[in-house]
Amino acid sequence: PETRDDEQELQQTAELVLTGKLNAAKTDGQVSREEAENIIGKMRGSGLDADAQQWLLSEMQKPLDVNAFAAEIPNREVAAQVYAASLLAVEVDTAAERQYLEQLAERTGLHPVVVQHIQKTMGAAA
């Protein structure tokens, strides 16, 4: 990032992407131990500090609210990143996971063609 604003925007996007992954993992009612270890393990590998770990644990405990989450996403570019990360976070083998992804796409204004492209690119289907 070149400026403080750029840095803040990058941080906000990273938090939204991570929250999207967590939300996808929550679709069955809770983040399983395996899902939590997978997410935390990946984040530790990228240098997650103690404050970020605490934020992550706090986010895992929050109930899933797709409407509130979608309202935090500032634009379709970030929405596409969040959708892709969410798609990778789960195997999309339950109706709840498919419903979360559909709601996320709909509420963030992602066009169905964009959603299909993301799914194809990621080698997954919702």
How would you describe this structure in keywords?
126 residues, 7 helices, 0% strand, mainly alpha, 75% helix
Architecture overview:
By secondary structure, the protein is mainly alpha-helical. Helix content is 75%, strand content 0%. The protein contains seven helices and no strands. The chain starts with a helix and ends with a helix.
Strand runs, count: 0
The rough form would be described as globular
Please describe the biggest sheet, giving its number of strands, its sense, and whether it closes into a barrel.
Answer: none
Mean pLDDT: 87
State the helix count.
7
Order of helix and strand elements from N to C terminus: HHHHHHH
Short description:
By secondary structure, this protein is mainly alpha-helical. 75% of the residues lie in helices and 0% in strands.
